[in-house]
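pinned: reference chain
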Amino acid sequence: MHGILFLALEDFIESRLGEGVWETALEAAKLEQFEFEPDRYYADTMANVLFAITTKFMKFPLSKTLELFGEHMAPGLVTMGRSMGMIQKDWKTLDIIERLQSDILPPFANREAGVKPPDIRTYRLKHSEVAVAYVSHRKLCALMKGIIRGLGKFFQEPIAFKEYVCMQQNAPLCRLSVFLDDPFLVRYVDIEREFGLIHSQIIEISFYNSFQGVPYTSIGLVMQYSKEDVVIQASPSQLIAMQEEQVTYIAVPHLQQGLKALIQKVDVAQGVATLGNIRLTDGSVGSRRFPRVGPDKRIAVKMQLSRRALRGHLLNLSRGGARILLEKDSRMPEVLLYEPVSLEFSLPLKFVEMDDVILLGPLQMNLDGNVLDASPVDGCVAVRIVFGAIDGQERVILEQYSRKVHEDVKEIMTQRLSK
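pinned: its C-alpha cells
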C-alpha cells in the first residue's frame, strides 16, 4: 500500500479524534516503530490493521469508516494529482474517474515491489455518467466510493451512485454507475467532446424526422462544430423535414442514448443545417420496429379503459401501436403500465385489396392493446398504446393505410424539392 494512504489516515484520525490518537493507533497495531513516508510502499496488512483499529475507535462499521476516510482524502488527492500533472485544472469529478486507469493510477504501480494499483475500469457513458468496474483483492470498494463522494463535495457537484453488484456481497467485482444527480446535467451534451470525436473520425450519424406525419431517416456527417452548435450535412429531403419540424433526433454510434437538437438554420441548396441546444433524449433513437405515420386527416377514436369510455383522436399509428390525444374533458384514470385497452376508429381508405377481395372504405378498426404510458400535452393527455396480436385483415389494412400516407406525402416532398 502506498505511503500516501498512511499519511492521509493519520490526518483523518487526528482531525476526527484529536491529536495523539494516531500514536495510540500505531501502538495498538504494534507499528509504533514505523514512520510512514510518501514515496514508499508498505504491506497491505499494515493498512488493514489500522483500518480495523480506526473503526474500533470511531465506533462505526468498517464500510462507513472507509467511506468517511475516502471523503477526507479526496481534496488532498486532487491537489497532489494537479501538482504531479496527472489531473488537469479543468477536470471535475467524472473527468477524474474516467481517467483513473489511463492517467492517474499507473504512476502508483511498482513492479519491483510487486505493487499493483486497483483494477478500476471506467467508461464515460455520457457527460453526466461514468460506468465503473472495480476489481481488487483488497476489496476496498467503500474507500473508492468515499473518494468519489469527496470529489463531488470538493467540486460542489451533486454526485450519486447506482450500485449493481459488489464484492462485499460475494460478487467477483463491484459495478456501479456514478452520475450527476441534476435534471439539467442528466440531459447535457458536451458538444465539443462528442461531435469533435465524430468529426475527427468521420463517423456517419443518423437523423430522424417526420414530414407531414411520415418518418424521414438518413445518414449525415458533421462538417463543423463549436461549444454551442454543429453544422451537419444531410440529404435534401431530410433537411426539408428538419426545416418543417424545427427539431431533429440523432443516433450516434458511441452513445447509448439518442440526441435531440433544435434547428437553427437550414440551407437545402448547400446541403447543410446548423443544430443547437443539443440534449440527450430519454432513450435510444431509431429503435422502433414499426414506423408510425401521422394521419393526414383527423381520425376520431373511442377508447375503453378500465370500464371507462374515453374519446380522442389519433396522433400517429403503426402496426405496433398508436398515440391518442384525449379530449380536454376526458378524465384519465390512474393507469398501470400495460393496463388493457380497446380502440375503435375508422381509417379513411377508399378501398383495400386483400387476396381476391376488395374491401370498400372507410374501414372500421377494432383493436386491443395495452397502455404504454400517458403524458400531458397542451392541457390534454396523450396516451401511447401498444397493440396485441393483429390478424391478417387488420394487418393488411394498417399496412395499406401507411403506404397511402407515404405516397401522398412523397408527392408533396417531391414538389418541395423541385422548387
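why pinned: The mean pLDDT is 90. The longest helix spans residues 392-418.
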